[in-house]
Write a structure and sequence with these properties.
- The protein folds into three domains: about 1-125, Immunoglobulin-like (Sandwich); about 130-335, no CATH class; about 345-380.
- About 25% of the residues lie in helices and about 40% in strands.
- The chain has helices at about 1-20, 25-35, 125-135, 165-170, 295-305, 345-360, 360-380; strands spanning about 45-50, 50-55, 60-65, 75-80, 85, 90-95, 100-110, 110-120, 140-145, 150, 165, 175-185, 190-200, 205-215, 225-230, 235-245, 250-265, 265-270, 285-290, 310, 320-325, 330-335.
């Protein structure tokens, strides 16, 4: 009710102000330039740097109108200025801990447009989230909407390094325990690899990925050490991905959804630890990928079948580890199939060897081990 009230008051204010402004040369000019053809329609699009702001800190919000030659004046208001204030530029400042609605409104061609955004005011900033979201450390970002981290694959340093099976072989030594499937095919004189991952990433994250990789076609075929390049932008594919996590009561919780867009590497990582790392079948990856044409779609469908996926007759009837072909779209549900080798022997062997080597200096290492354990606990609590 409070949100509706603030929007109603804001719209009333806009109507009054635009009526006054229409008698001034500046106001008349701005409104005149903003009138498009009636068939185009208008929409108010609101954006924010984040959904969270700390007390005494600010976050910038923006609002724009579609299908106009010149942006009209936007009017801003806060539903509770004791929690957060907003100025005429859309700059929101946190005042006290709580949740507040920030509303924006304007008038275009006699039509009132309005929108609202929920901002959470927290006691303090989260250092790691700020680094990932604002400073783009390691090309990772943070989503406040579903509380997860993801790679900004549109501008990621990882793009320069491609991908090969050696990365998966080495992953257990880096505390990366994940299931994966690979689909290889040749299309338009290129060798392609479509790979999906899901599992435990280090000590405090679990998640999933979809990657597209290419290389010039080689008649020798694809071997264990074949290396692929990250694809040129014209070979990126539209896709969407949702990660699900099985709860202890048997229900499945949606962890996050990556929106339908062009990707070469679609990722998402949640803070937490799986109950069982090998295999990671308490995670389920669902989504769809749009391929370039029927030939490419058929090649990938064949590859999924070779991996053990079952083709479904309807989109609503996709079974676990199944897929459905709809034109150039492939919808899928992946949970149990995995080409990943068990790495338990790697961990056990490394643990035994490491223990034997470190036994003589164990007394000197205990303080450092304790400090490391404390750091992991602090990071887990902060996230």
């Amino acid at each position: 009710m409070k949100a509706k009230s603030i929007i109603a008051k804001l719209i009333a204010l806009v109507l009054v102000l635009t009526t006054v402004f229409s008698f001034t040369s500046v106001g008349a000019s701005a409104l005149a330039k903003s009138v498009p053809t009636a068939s185009e329609g208008h929409a108010l699009v609101m954006k924010s740097e984040s959904l969270t702001v700390a007390k005494k800190k600010t976050v910038q919000m923006t609002a724009s109108v579609t299908n106009v030659d010149e942006q009209p004046v936007i009017y801003w208001a806060s539903s509770d200025e004791s929690i957060a204030t907003v100025d005429e530029t859309g700059l929101v400042k946190g005042v006290s801990v709580g949740t507040v609605t920030i509303a924006a409104a304007t008038v275009v061609d006699g039509e009132v447009l309005s929108g609202e955004f929920t901002i959470n005011v927290t006691k303090r900033n989260n250092f790691l989230r700020n680094l990932l979201e604002e400073r783009q450390i390691l090309s990772y970002q943070y989503s406040y909407e579903d509380d997860y981290y993801y790679t900004n694959d549109k501008d990621a340093w990882q793009y320069n390094f491609g991908f090969g099976k050696i990365y998966d072989f080495a992953s257990p030594y880096l505390l990366l325990e994940y299931d994966y499937i690979r689909i290889f095919f040749t299309y338009e004189d290129k060798d392609w690899m479509l790979q999906m991952w899901k599992g435990q990433y280090g000590l405090v994250f679990y998640g999933g990925e979809i990657g597209i990789y290419t290389r010039p076609h080689d008649e020798k075929g694809i071997g264990a050490w074949t290396f692929f390049n990250c694809p040129a932008e014209e070979d990126w594919l539209k896709m969407e991905m949702t990660l699900w996590h099985e709860q202890t009561d048997g229900s499945w919780n949606r962890e996050f959804t990556r929106d339908y867009d062009y990707y070469w590497w679609c990722t998402g990582f949640k803070n937490g630890h799986l109950r069982q790392e090998e295999p990671a079948d308490e995670l389920r990856l669902t989504g769809r990928i749009t391929f370039k044409d029927a030939e490419m779609t058929s090649l990938v469908a064949d590859g999924l079948a070779e991996c053990g996926f079952t083709e479904s007759l309807t989109k609503d009837g996709i079974a676990l580890d199944g897929f459905y072909v709809d034109g150039n779209d492939i919808h899928f549900s992946w949970q149990n199939i995995s080409e990943a080798e068990s790495t338990m022997w790697v961990k056990v062997s490394a643990g035994i060897v490491g223990s034997l080597l470190l036994l003589p200096v164990a007394p000197f290492l205990l303080p450092f081990v304790g400090a490391y354990a404390a750091l992991v606990l602090i990071v887990d609590l902060v996230l």
